[in-house]
Amino acid sequence: MLIATFGPSTGWAGKTIQYEDGRFTLEDHGVITAADVLTYDGQGHLEWAYEGLREWVTTQAQQSRPVGSLIGAAVDHSAVRSPATNRRPLLFALVAVAAVMAIILIVATFAPVSSMDEAAGPSDTGASLPQAS
Fold first, then answer.
1. Model's pTM, two decimal places?
2. pLDDT at position 88, please?
3. Per residue in 7-32, is it b (16+ CB within 10 Å) or e — as a string?
4. Low-confidence ranges of the chain (pLDDT < 70)
5. Number of DSSP helices (H) and strands (E) in the chain, helices first
6. Buried b (16+ CB within 10 A) or exposed e, 74-103
7. Is 83:46 a contact under the CB 8 Å cutoff?
């Protein structure tokens, strides 16, 4: 059953959230929780398939919460999970930064050696010392 579609306010415009076999599924992502659906709605990203679904999903989220998260909800508002994020771009950026730093370190390591050789001048390995008379 179609629950909601992502609106134009997100990069996922047109992606759908379905409910089948007791699970919510985000198109091209996988299974998500009812709390995730409500988080997307709270961010203003969803267009509901029909009236009353928001309330029904809220009921599903309340029924699926374990006791531990209900206790956490009484203490603070962190019981609702944030939606899963794609960490690949962050990993790619970290690898790129590490590679650039490695190159800088290698260049910095060998640069003083070559400049010291240039400062010493050409080596006279074939020259002989002056002879004493």
1. 0.48
2. 77
3. eeeeebeeeebebeeeebbbeeeeeb
4. 65-86, 112-133
5. 4, 5
6. eeeeebbeebeeeeeeeeeeeeeeeeeeee
7. no
For residue 76, give Cα distances in angstroms to 2, 34, 41, 79, 80: 32, 19, 20, 7, 10
CA-based radius of gyration for the chain: 31
Round to whole Å and give the CA distance between 11 and 25: 17
The pLDDT of residue 32: 92
Q: How many CB atoms lie within 10 A of CB 115?
A: 10
Which amino acid, one-letter code, is at 39?
A: T
Amino acid 127: pLDDT? 54
What secondary structure letter does DSSP report for 81?
Answer: P
What local confidence, expressed as pLDDT, does residue 70 receive?
43
Contact 40, 6 (CB under 8 A): yes
Residue whose C-alpha is closest to residue 33's, from 10, 12, 63? 63
Query: What integer pLDDT is reported at residue 75 of this predicted model?
Result: 42
